């Protein structure tokens, strides 16, 4: 089984680790000439919170998630970095429950590998607050590379 498509799932917290995520994806995708799909899933509440900053007037139910993802940080930075390295990229967005939408996106693009970032949390924090990364890892239809950033939100 080769790796033709890598899904890099990102969210707003990934802005601080965009370079590290790009390095991780390039290690996988560049030598194999794989396409990288940069996926950004967001909830309606998140969209409403940042829609004015992105210049959108539409309410969440009326937007094209791909158009929002293309403009939402860290996607433009990642897209530029990967393209400069000669890796073919595509951007996809999704609106809904983040973990569910990322897993569905992985299925839809037929991802051979999924890369997701996360931060260090105690077991108690995960139990109380949940962990989107953990939900994605457990439900992913393909192998997952988890980039754990120890410096974020400690």
Automatic annotation (TrEMBL):
Residues 4-146 form the UspA domain. Pfam families: Usp (PF00582). InterPro entries: Rossmann-like_a/b/a_fold (IPR014729), Universal_stress_UspA (IPR006015), UspA (IPR006016). Gene3D superfamilies: HUPs. Belongs to the universal stress protein A family. This is Universal stress protein UspA-like protein.
